[in-house]
Amino acid sequence: MTGGLCKLKNLQFLELSRNYFVGYLPPCLANLSSLTVLDISHNSFKGTFPSSLLYNLKSLALLALVNNHFKGTFSFNLLANHSHLQVLNIGSYTHDFKIDTENPPFIPSFQLKILEVINCTLNEPSHVPTFLYNQHELRQLHIGLSNMKGRFPNWLLENNTKLDYLNLSNNHLIGPVEFNATTKFSNMHILDVSCNPIREIPPQVGSLFPNLVTLNKSSSSLQGSFPASLGDMRQLINLDISNNKLSGQIPQEFGKGSNDLRFLKLSNNSLSGPFLPSGSNFTKLLSLHQANNSFRGNIPDEIMKNTELRMLDLSNNKLHGEISSWIGRFQSLTFLILSQNSLEGPIPIGFCKLTELAYVDISHNNLNGTLPKCVILLHLRYLHLQNNKFSGPIPTVLVNSPLLLIMNLVNNKISGQIPKWISSFLNLRILMLKKNKLDGPIPSDVCQLKNISIPDLPQNNLSGSIPSCLNNISFGRLDSLNGKVLGKFVVPWVTRSTLYIFYPDTNTLNEFQDEQHFAEYDEQDVDFMSKSRYETYAGNILDLMSGLDLSINKLIGQIPSQMGYLGNIHTLNLSNNHLTGPLPETFSNLKQIESLDLSCNILGGLIPAQLTNLYHLSVFSVAHNNFTGRTPKRVNQFATFEAGSYEGNTLLCGPPLNRSCPSAIEQPTLEIDAPLLRKDGFIGAFLYSFAPPFLCCISLL
């Protein structure tokens, strides 16, 4: 990058941002004494920022260093004599870059209009930079993720009445936020003080900031009631006061006043009463997040005035009654989340108009019936219907949802057989059908779900044998997934949902699509049995998880040897069935297995010694079967397994069982014992006579 560049002494504009530059910043850039703009942001420069570089660059009006890998300390004193400086953007990918605005002390000759200090360690001990007392022309100020402490700088707003953007998020600022009753900051459009323990919203916040477009005070330990004066913000488009301790009802003044709202986020508070006040007129609302509060009653008619809604989250409240047919008015709806309420009755016919849905979670209610036959969900990716009272077969309308990634129907009354058309879900990663009334065989069509990582089918009435083709399933192998990510939810390209962002410099509201607006639902989670207990897997952990659970069914026959080639599987549960025959020798190939439960079957023969080479195995059970001979050697992971892993096998001997082996019994091998495993001879009949121990496991049902 050096060479002739450093010889261009008349160069005024050097824009190198958003490239792939690496290494150290060349000090010879100090020769470019005519520079007015130096932007090296969003690269991978490293090392200590060369302080000598700035001594000769006294004409700089814009300096942008943010998002590199600089280390060491950057002193603002280096800029004291840069009288032309108006825009300063500084920060790092890590907190290894320290910013010192106090030592040595200085009086700035510049008047900044834009200052951005992000993801740095700001001063030690950190506090609001004192040089800002001398700044009176600021338009935009962003000091975030910088460990800034102390009281909220009320003086900063009073000194900079032209501020239209203030972001002090992710610091340690405390309240109070106090101003005179007559004070107005009419130029302020965006105010973000989220993730600070401020603890209060000024009662007159609406009159203080009458022209606010965006207000974010989420995760600020706010207490008390919902400020009615928020309704005075007639231009408010985006309000986020989620993750606080606000209580009481939403005042009517707010519902009638903030008619331009597009995004309203009140989730994770203690708000009560109706989730929208009577007389609300939010006709432009695009996104409504009210989860994890104490809202009561039916879903009110006020929401019917809006036909543009894209995201609706009312989960974990105290709503009851039926989902009315008016839900069909929201024909642009992409996210519908009504889980963990007391909703009842069938899914209304109006659901058929919601053709843009990509994410549906109506789990943990008392809903019944099935999906209407007219439903066409071409964009559907996540379907959570678990813990309801849905009945009938797996809805055939889902065959029209080829993009489905997760289907969760756990704990319903779904009956009939697993349909052959299930093979049409070529993108399906998680299939949760536990605790239903499914019967019949597992169709071989399941083997065509090559991208699936968790088929969860326990506690049904499935019968027949285990398909031998299950080794065709990837169980999460990355080479089979073409880079698809499950735990992260990415949806913009599959919907026509339009979101908006406000640009204060042009005072315009423009359409845009960005994953940040889906951050609330970025992490999917499922509950899955592993290591003898239910675990919740979410986000990146879910992406790495793979397992098969066919337990508590009526499966018969031998375990297919092909299952030993599921090399990427982490948990396998075949317990509480009627499986017979040997434990396949191929199971020694399950190198990633962490939990293997074959208990409560009618399996027999010797336990293969090669299983001791499964170094990741932490839970192992062959209890209540008809295994014979010596237990595997107490080496590697098998040294940790107690007697409970082997109990109920009366012909097993050796530690950890309190049953010693006769000297004639040799350590089991896979080849020698094959004749003992025949079902059609005397030995087979003898082993089957020990089926009664299996009955002791039925209590698990």
TrEMBL record:
<dbReference type="Pfam" id="PF13855">
    <property type="entry name" value="LRR_8"/>
</dbReference>
<keyword id="KW-0472">Membrane</keyword>
<keyword id="KW-0732">Signal</keyword>
<dbReference type="InterPro" id="IPR003591">
    <property type="entry name" value="Leu-rich_rpt_typical-subtyp"/>
</dbReference>
<dbReference type="GO" id="GO:0005886">
    <property type="term" value="C:plasma membrane"/>
</dbReference>
<comment type="similarity">
    <text>Belongs to the RLP family.</text>
</comment>
<dbReference type="InterPro" id="IPR051502">
    <property type="entry name" value="RLP_Defense_Trigger"/>
</dbReference>
<keyword id="KW-0812">Transmembrane</keyword>
<protein>
    <submittedName>
        <fullName>Uncharacterized protein</fullName>
    </submittedName>
</protein>
<keyword id="KW-1133">Transmembrane helix</keyword>
<keyword id="KW-0597">Phosphoprotein</keyword>
<dbReference type="Pfam" id="PF00560">
    <property type="entry name" value="LRR_1"/>
</dbReference>
<keyword id="KW-0677">Repeat</keyword>
<keyword id="KW-0433">Leucine-rich repeat</keyword>
<keyword id="KW-1003">Cell membrane</keyword>
<dbReference type="InterPro" id="IPR032675">
    <property type="entry name" value="LRR_dom_sf"/>
</dbReference>
<dbReference type="InterPro" id="IPR001611">
    <property type="entry name" value="Leu-rich_rpt"/>
</dbReference>
<keyword id="KW-0325">Glycoprotein</keyword>
